[in-house]
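From the pipeline queue, job 12 of 40. The input is one protein chain; the requested action is below.

Action: predict structure.
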Amino acid sequence: MIAGLVALAALVAPAAWSADDFRNNDLSRWSIEAEPGAQVTAQNGILDIDAADGATLWYRRPLTGPVGIGVSEGEPDARERHPRAIVRRGLGRHPPGHRGPPGLVDQLINFWEAYRLAGMASKDSAGRARLSGEQRRAQIAAAAERIAREHGLSAVTLRAVATAVGVGPALVAHHAPSMDDVVAAAFETIVAAELSDLEHLRADSPDAVALVRELLRTLLDGTRSDVTLVWVQSWALGRRNEALAERVRAQMDAWTAFLERIIRDGVRTGSFRVDDPAAVAAQVLGMIDGLNAHALVSWRDADARIRLMSTAVEAMLGLRPGELTAA
Protein backbone atom coordinates (compact mmCIF):
# COMPACT_ATOMS: atom_id res chain seq x y z
CA MET A 1 0.00 0.00 0.00
CA ILE A 2 1.05 3.55 -0.63
CA ALA A 3 -0.64 5.91 1.83
CA GLY A 4 -0.76 9.64 1.45
CA LEU A 5 0.52 10.03 -2.12
CA VAL A 6 -1.48 13.22 -2.08
CA ALA A 7 0.22 15.80 -4.26
CA LEU A 8 1.83 15.76 -7.67
CA ALA A 9 2.77 19.33 -8.38
CA ALA A 10 4.69 21.77 -10.52
CA LEU A 11 6.85 23.19 -7.77
CA VAL A 12 7.44 26.47 -9.55
CA ALA A 13 3.70 27.19 -9.54
CA PRO A 14 2.18 26.06 -6.20
CA ALA A 15 -1.23 27.44 -7.13
CA ALA A 16 -1.43 24.90 -9.96
CA TRP A 17 -0.98 21.86 -7.75
CA SER A 18 -2.85 18.80 -8.89
CA ALA A 19 -3.81 16.47 -6.06
CA ASP A 20 -5.37 13.06 -5.59
CA ASP A 21 -6.73 12.08 -2.20
CA PHE A 22 -7.38 8.45 -3.26
CA ARG A 23 -11.06 8.25 -2.33
CA ASN A 24 -14.02 6.34 -3.76
CA ASN A 25 -11.82 4.12 -5.96
CA ASP A 26 -11.54 6.95 -8.51
CA LEU A 27 -8.48 6.21 -10.65
CA SER A 28 -9.59 8.32 -13.59
CA ARG A 29 -6.54 10.62 -13.18
CA TRP A 30 -4.18 7.69 -13.70
CA SER A 31 -3.20 5.40 -16.55
CA ILE A 32 -2.25 2.00 -15.15
CA GLU A 33 0.05 -0.53 -16.75
CA ALA A 34 0.28 -3.86 -14.97
CA GLU A 35 0.59 -7.56 -15.62
CA PRO A 36 -2.59 -9.71 -15.64
CA GLY A 37 -3.88 -10.37 -12.14
CA ALA A 38 -2.67 -7.08 -10.68
CA GLN A 39 -5.13 -5.01 -8.64
CA VAL A 40 -4.98 -1.27 -8.02
CA THR A 41 -7.57 0.43 -5.80
CA ALA A 42 -7.96 3.83 -4.15
CA GLN A 43 -9.99 3.89 -0.96
CA ASN A 44 -9.94 5.87 2.30
CA GLY A 45 -6.86 7.86 1.35
CA ILE A 46 -4.83 4.78 0.40
CA LEU A 47 -3.56 3.76 -3.01
CA ASP A 48 -3.32 -0.03 -2.78
CA ILE A 49 -1.16 -1.72 -5.44
CA ASP A 50 -1.20 -5.52 -5.44
CA ALA A 51 1.06 -6.47 -8.33
CA ALA A 52 3.54 -9.28 -7.83
CA ASP A 53 5.08 -8.74 -11.27
CA GLY A 54 5.14 -4.96 -11.12
CA ALA A 55 2.92 -2.04 -12.08
CA THR A 56 3.40 1.49 -13.37
CA LEU A 57 1.00 4.37 -12.69
CA TRP A 58 1.12 7.38 -15.00
CA TYR A 59 -0.56 10.64 -14.03
CA ARG A 60 -2.74 11.65 -17.01
CA ARG A 61 -2.54 15.42 -16.60
CA PRO A 62 0.53 16.99 -18.26
CA LEU A 63 2.81 18.72 -15.75
CA THR A 64 5.39 21.41 -16.38
CA GLY A 65 8.40 22.63 -14.44
CA PRO A 66 10.24 20.68 -11.73
CA VAL A 67 7.86 18.02 -10.48
CA GLY A 68 7.88 16.28 -7.10
CA ILE A 69 6.01 13.35 -5.61
CA GLY A 70 5.44 12.89 -1.90
CA VAL A 71 5.37 9.28 -0.74
CA SER A 72 4.44 7.98 2.69
CA GLU A 73 4.87 4.27 3.38
CA GLY A 74 3.34 3.90 6.80
CA GLU A 75 5.72 6.33 8.52
CA PRO A 76 4.94 10.08 8.47
CA ASP A 77 8.53 11.02 7.66
CA ALA A 78 9.16 8.32 5.08
CA ARG A 79 9.25 10.65 2.06
CA GLU A 80 11.38 11.21 -1.01
CA ARG A 81 11.40 14.15 -3.42
CA HIS A 82 12.88 13.91 -6.89
CA PRO A 83 12.59 16.41 -9.77
CA ARG A 84 10.53 15.05 -12.68
CA ALA A 85 9.85 11.72 -11.05
CA ILE A 86 7.31 8.95 -11.29
CA VAL A 87 6.52 6.26 -8.77
CA ARG A 88 6.94 2.76 -10.00
CA ARG A 89 6.36 -0.34 -7.99
CA GLY A 90 8.21 -3.38 -9.23
CA LEU A 91 10.94 -5.80 -8.28
CA GLY A 92 13.83 -3.32 -8.41
CA ARG A 93 15.93 -1.97 -5.59
CA HIS A 94 15.10 1.06 -3.42
CA PRO A 95 16.49 4.43 -4.52
CA PRO A 96 19.33 5.99 -2.56
CA GLY A 97 18.17 7.62 0.67
CA HIS A 98 14.97 5.61 0.89
CA ARG A 99 13.83 5.33 4.53
CA GLY A 100 10.56 3.46 4.22
CA PRO A 101 10.04 -0.23 5.03
CA PRO A 102 11.42 -2.54 2.34
CA GLY A 103 9.25 -4.10 -0.31
CA LEU A 104 6.64 -1.36 -0.76
CA VAL A 105 7.81 1.25 -3.26
CA ASP A 106 10.76 -0.26 -5.02
CA GLN A 107 11.73 2.52 -7.37
CA LEU A 108 11.37 6.28 -7.39
CA ILE A 109 12.74 7.04 -10.82
CA ASN A 110 14.13 10.34 -12.01
CA PHE A 111 13.02 10.86 -15.60
CA TRP A 112 16.26 12.50 -16.65
CA GLU A 113 18.25 9.54 -15.38
CA ALA A 114 15.92 7.22 -17.27
CA TYR A 115 16.52 9.23 -20.43
CA ARG A 116 20.27 8.95 -19.94
CA LEU A 117 20.04 5.19 -19.47
CA ALA A 118 17.88 4.96 -22.61
CA GLY A 119 20.69 6.53 -24.60
CA MET A 120 18.86 9.68 -25.58
CA ALA A 121 21.99 11.81 -25.41
CA SER A 122 23.64 10.11 -28.36
CA LYS A 123 22.10 7.15 -30.15
CA ASP A 124 19.57 4.36 -29.79
CA SER A 125 20.36 1.41 -27.58
CA ALA A 126 20.88 -0.86 -30.58
CA GLY A 127 23.64 1.42 -31.91
CA ARG A 128 21.61 2.85 -34.79
CA ALA A 129 21.88 6.47 -35.84
CA ARG A 130 19.64 8.74 -33.84
CA LEU A 131 16.31 9.52 -35.56
CA SER A 132 14.75 12.93 -35.78
CA GLY A 133 11.78 13.70 -33.57
CA GLU A 134 9.42 13.46 -36.51
CA GLN A 135 10.86 10.09 -37.58
CA ARG A 136 10.66 8.74 -34.04
CA ARG A 137 7.04 9.84 -33.60
CA ALA A 138 6.14 8.17 -36.90
CA GLN A 139 7.89 5.01 -35.73
CA ILE A 140 5.98 5.07 -32.44
CA ALA A 141 2.66 5.63 -34.24
CA ALA A 142 3.32 2.74 -36.63
CA ALA A 143 4.23 0.42 -33.77
CA ALA A 144 1.07 1.38 -31.85
CA GLU A 145 -1.08 0.73 -34.91
CA ARG A 146 0.55 -2.66 -35.47
CA ILE A 147 0.03 -3.67 -31.83
CA ALA A 148 -3.62 -2.54 -31.93
CA ARG A 149 -4.31 -4.54 -35.09
CA GLU A 150 -2.66 -7.68 -33.74
CA HIS A 151 -3.72 -7.58 -30.09
CA GLY A 152 -6.31 -4.83 -29.66
CA LEU A 153 -6.19 -1.28 -28.30
CA SER A 154 -5.79 -2.47 -24.72
CA ALA A 155 -2.38 -3.89 -25.64
CA VAL A 156 -1.05 -0.47 -26.69
CA THR A 157 0.98 0.40 -23.59
CA LEU A 158 4.18 2.33 -23.11
CA ARG A 159 6.19 -0.83 -22.52
CA ALA A 160 4.65 -2.67 -25.47
CA VAL A 161 5.36 0.20 -27.86
CA ALA A 162 8.91 0.58 -26.56
CA THR A 163 9.53 -3.13 -27.07
CA ALA A 164 8.12 -3.00 -30.60
CA VAL A 165 10.27 -0.02 -31.50
CA GLY A 166 13.32 -1.46 -29.79
CA VAL A 167 14.05 1.42 -27.41
CA GLY A 168 13.57 2.17 -23.74
CA PRO A 169 10.19 3.33 -22.39
CA ALA A 170 11.66 6.71 -21.43
CA LEU A 171 12.49 7.47 -25.06
CA VAL A 172 8.91 6.70 -26.12
CA ALA A 173 7.61 8.87 -23.25
CA HIS A 174 9.82 11.73 -24.41
CA HIS A 175 8.42 11.73 -27.95
CA ALA A 176 4.88 10.70 -26.97
CA PRO A 177 4.19 12.15 -23.51
CA SER A 178 0.55 11.01 -23.52
CA MET A 179 -0.18 7.33 -24.16
CA ASP A 180 -3.86 8.28 -24.30
CA ASP A 181 -3.06 10.27 -27.44
CA VAL A 182 -1.02 7.38 -28.89
CA VAL A 183 -3.94 4.98 -28.38
CA ALA A 184 -6.40 7.50 -29.83
CA ALA A 185 -4.26 8.04 -32.92
CA ALA A 186 -3.88 4.29 -33.49
CA PHE A 187 -7.66 3.87 -33.31
CA GLU A 188 -8.27 6.70 -35.74
CA THR A 189 -5.72 5.43 -38.25
CA ILE A 190 -7.17 1.92 -38.29
CA VAL A 191 -10.87 2.76 -38.57
CA ALA A 192 -10.34 5.66 -40.98
CA ALA A 193 -8.42 3.33 -43.31
CA GLU A 194 -11.34 0.89 -43.33
CA LEU A 195 -13.81 3.66 -44.12
CA SER A 196 -11.57 4.88 -46.94
CA ASP A 197 -11.61 1.37 -48.44
CA LEU A 198 -15.40 1.34 -48.36
CA GLU A 199 -15.60 4.79 -49.93
CA HIS A 200 -13.84 3.26 -52.94
CA LEU A 201 -16.43 0.46 -52.94
CA ARG A 202 -19.20 3.07 -53.02
CA ALA A 203 -17.54 4.91 -55.90
CA ASP A 204 -17.32 1.68 -57.93
CA SER A 205 -20.96 0.63 -57.34
CA PRO A 206 -23.52 2.97 -58.92
CA ASP A 207 -26.41 0.60 -58.15
CA ALA A 208 -27.63 1.37 -54.60
CA VAL A 209 -29.11 -2.08 -53.88
CA ALA A 210 -26.03 -3.91 -55.14
CA LEU A 211 -23.84 -1.57 -53.08
CA VAL A 212 -25.71 -2.23 -49.81
CA ARG A 213 -25.65 -5.97 -50.51
CA GLU A 214 -21.87 -5.91 -51.08
CA LEU A 215 -21.32 -3.61 -48.13
CA LEU A 216 -23.11 -5.92 -45.68
CA ARG A 217 -21.19 -8.93 -46.92
CA THR A 218 -17.89 -7.10 -46.73
CA LEU A 219 -18.47 -5.86 -43.19
CA LEU A 220 -20.00 -9.03 -41.76
CA ASP A 221 -17.99 -11.85 -43.38
CA GLY A 222 -15.62 -12.12 -40.41
CA THR A 223 -12.47 -11.01 -42.22
CA ARG A 224 -12.26 -7.71 -40.31
CA SER A 225 -12.16 -9.05 -36.77
CA ASP A 226 -9.02 -7.03 -36.01
CA VAL A 227 -10.88 -3.79 -36.71
CA THR A 228 -13.94 -5.03 -34.82
CA LEU A 229 -11.83 -5.65 -31.71
CA VAL A 230 -10.40 -2.14 -31.98
CA TRP A 231 -13.93 -0.70 -32.15
CA VAL A 232 -15.23 -2.76 -29.23
CA GLN A 233 -12.31 -1.88 -26.99
CA SER A 234 -12.48 1.78 -27.97
CA TRP A 235 -15.94 2.12 -26.40
CA ALA A 236 -14.71 0.69 -23.10
CA LEU A 237 -11.34 2.45 -23.02
CA GLY A 238 -12.90 5.73 -24.09
CA ARG A 239 -14.63 6.02 -20.73
CA ARG A 240 -11.28 7.00 -19.18
CA ASN A 241 -9.48 8.30 -22.24
CA GLU A 242 -11.14 11.47 -23.48
CA ALA A 243 -8.73 11.82 -26.40
CA LEU A 244 -9.85 8.39 -27.57
CA ALA A 245 -13.52 9.09 -26.85
CA GLU A 246 -13.37 12.21 -29.00
CA ARG A 247 -11.90 10.25 -31.94
CA VAL A 248 -14.46 7.47 -31.49
CA ARG A 249 -17.35 9.91 -31.63
CA ALA A 250 -15.89 11.56 -34.73
CA GLN A 251 -15.45 8.23 -36.50
CA MET A 252 -18.96 7.08 -35.57
CA ASP A 253 -20.26 10.34 -37.08
CA ALA A 254 -18.17 9.74 -40.20
CA TRP A 255 -19.54 6.21 -40.58
CA THR A 256 -23.11 7.39 -40.07
CA ALA A 257 -22.61 10.09 -42.70
CA PHE A 258 -21.16 7.50 -45.11
CA LEU A 259 -24.20 5.24 -44.72
CA GLU A 260 -26.57 8.20 -44.94
CA ARG A 261 -25.08 9.23 -48.29
CA ILE A 262 -25.66 5.73 -49.64
CA ILE A 263 -29.27 5.75 -48.44
CA ARG A 264 -29.95 9.22 -49.86
CA ASP A 265 -28.52 8.13 -53.21
CA GLY A 266 -30.90 5.17 -53.21
CA VAL A 267 -33.87 7.36 -52.29
CA ARG A 268 -33.01 9.79 -55.09
CA THR A 269 -32.92 7.01 -57.70
CA GLY A 270 -36.11 5.42 -56.37
CA SER A 271 -34.39 2.25 -55.11
CA PHE A 272 -35.12 2.93 -51.42
CA ARG A 273 -38.22 4.24 -49.67
CA VAL A 274 -36.97 5.95 -46.51
CA ASP A 275 -38.41 8.98 -44.71
CA ASP A 276 -35.44 9.68 -42.42
CA PRO A 277 -32.12 8.56 -43.99
CA ALA A 278 -30.05 9.89 -41.05
CA ALA A 279 -32.00 7.85 -38.49
CA VAL A 280 -31.85 4.69 -40.62
CA ALA A 281 -28.11 5.16 -41.14
CA ALA A 282 -27.53 5.36 -37.38
CA GLN A 283 -29.65 2.25 -36.81
CA VAL A 284 -27.83 0.27 -39.50
CA LEU A 285 -24.45 1.25 -38.04
CA GLY A 286 -25.51 0.10 -34.59
CA MET A 287 -26.71 -3.25 -35.93
CA ILE A 288 -23.49 -3.83 -37.88
CA ASP A 289 -21.41 -3.02 -34.81
CA GLY A 290 -23.49 -5.32 -32.64
CA LEU A 291 -23.32 -8.32 -34.97
CA ASN A 292 -19.60 -7.88 -35.49
CA ALA A 293 -19.09 -7.74 -31.72
CA HIS A 294 -21.04 -10.99 -31.45
CA ALA A 295 -18.77 -12.49 -34.10
CA LEU A 296 -15.78 -12.06 -31.77
CA VAL A 297 -17.20 -14.89 -29.66
CA SER A 298 -18.33 -16.88 -32.72
CA TRP A 299 -22.04 -16.27 -32.23
CA ARG A 300 -23.50 -17.92 -35.35
CA ASP A 301 -21.52 -18.11 -38.56
CA ALA A 302 -20.89 -15.30 -41.04
CA ASP A 303 -23.62 -16.42 -43.47
CA ALA A 304 -26.23 -16.46 -40.70
CA ARG A 305 -25.21 -12.99 -39.50
CA ILE A 306 -25.37 -11.62 -43.05
CA ARG A 307 -28.87 -13.10 -43.54
CA LEU A 308 -30.08 -11.60 -40.27
CA MET A 309 -28.75 -8.17 -41.16
CA SER A 310 -29.96 -8.29 -44.76
CA THR A 311 -33.51 -9.16 -43.73
CA ALA A 312 -33.63 -6.25 -41.27
CA VAL A 313 -32.11 -3.75 -43.71
CA GLU A 314 -34.53 -4.77 -46.48
CA ALA A 315 -37.41 -3.71 -44.25
CA MET A 316 -35.67 -0.49 -43.19
CA LEU A 317 -34.98 0.54 -46.80
CA GLY A 318 -38.40 -0.44 -48.13
CA LEU A 319 -37.02 -3.26 -50.29
CA ARG A 320 -38.77 -6.48 -51.23
CA PRO A 321 -37.86 -9.53 -49.12
CA GLY A 322 -34.84 -11.29 -50.62
CA GLU A 323 -33.44 -8.35 -52.59
CA LEU A 324 -30.32 -8.13 -50.44
CA THR A 325 -29.89 -11.88 -50.04
CA ALA A 326 -30.08 -12.59 -53.76
CA ALA A 327 -26.84 -13.85 -55.29
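Job complete. Strands lie at 2-3, 7-10, 18-19, 30-34, 39-43, 46-50, 55-59, 67-69, 85-89, 107-110.
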